[in-house]
Design a protein that fits this description.
The chain is mostly helical. Helix content is 60%, strand content 5%. It has 5 helices and 2 strands, in the order ααααββα.
C-alpha cells in the first residue's frame, strides 16, 4: 500500500489530472462539465477523476441526480507543507555550503 502523500504526488504526475484540478480550483463542477475541455470520453475523464478522488484531492458529492466534484484544498496543503519543509532544508544546506566556501579557510579560496 502506498502512503497518502505518494498517492497524491502520483495523481498529480499526469497533466490531464493537473488540468482537472486547475478547473476544480475555480469551483465545484459536474463530470460532464469537467470533461468539456478535454478530447476524451466521459468514461476516460471519470477514470482520471477517480484517481484524484482515491488520492484525496477531489471529493464527489451528491445533489439530485448529479455528483459534483470539488477540490479538497486541505489535502493540497499537506503537499505544500511537505514541499516547503524540503525547500527550507535545501536552502539551509546551500547557505551553509556558500558560507563554507566563502570562509577564509574554506574551499572557496584555496590553492587551486
Amino acid at each position: 500500500m502506498t502512503d497518502p502523500l505518494s498517492s497524491k504526488f502520483a495523481a498529480l504526475a499526469d497533466p490531464t489530472r493537473r488540468a482537472m484540478l486547475a478547473r476544480l480550483a475555480l469551483g465545484e463542477t459536474t463530470l460532464s462539465d469537467l470533461a468539456k475541455p478535454f478530447e476524451m470520453s466521459i468514461p476516460a475523464v471519470a477514470k482520471h477523476l477517480a484517481v484524484l478522488e482515491r488520492a484525496g484531492l477531489v471529493k464527489r458529492g451528491r445533489r439530485a441526480q448529479s455528483r459534483p466534484a470539488s477540490l479538497q484544498v486541505t489535502e493540497l496543503a499537506e503537499m505544500t507543507n511537505w514541499i516547503e519543509r524540503c525547500r527550507v532544508h535545501w536552502e539551509g544546506s546551500f547557505d551553509r555550503l556558500a558560507n563554507y566556501l566563502d570562509a577564509p579557510e574554506g574551499g572557496g579560496s584555496g590553492n587551486g
